[in-house]
Specification:
Elements: H1 3-11, H2 15-26, H3 31-52, H4 62-68, H5 71-80, H6 85-103, H7 116-120
Helix pairs in contact: 1-2, 1-6, 3-4, 3-6, 4-6, 5-6
Length: 122
């Protein structure tokens, strides 16, 4: 399943744009920098750096995502898409490596305030 397919599942009736919005909301609505920071401080810095840099993207699991986000926010977002929190976090984990990789083609996280939508050109 490709990135747009996964984002579509996470976005429900709002499609892949809604999926992007939901991922950002899940990580505190602070854009790509916030996502990268939360994952890094949750022990996934090596994986995140593989997505930003050149080379193979290392995977993360749904359990990894669950450790990085607020459980009540995850529960609420999963319910909105008629999924379990595990299923929802598994989809997020599937989307993150490619999403961050595509948003950082120069090997650097763009400055705060850059639109994730425009970076991904979806």
């Amino acid at each position: 399943m490709g990135l747009q397919d996964v984002l579509g599942k996470l976005g429900g009736s709002k499609g892949h744009q809604g999926g992007l919005d939901n991922i950002q909301q899940l990580f505190g609505s602070s854009g790509l920098q916030g996502i990268v920071q939360k994952l890094t401080t949750s022990g996934m810095g090596q994986q995140v750096q593989s997505w930003i840099g050149k080379g193979q993207n290392q995977p993360v699991s749904g359990s990894d995502v669950q450790r990085a986000v607020d459980p009540s926010t995850l529960e609420q977002m999963a319910q909105q898409q008629n999924m379990s929190p595990q299923e929802y976090s598994d989809h997020v984990a599937q989307a993150l490596p490619e999403m961050v990789d595509k948003a950082t083609p120069e090997g650097m996280v763009p400055k705060q305030g850059s639109s994730l939508r425009s970076m991904l050109k979806l």
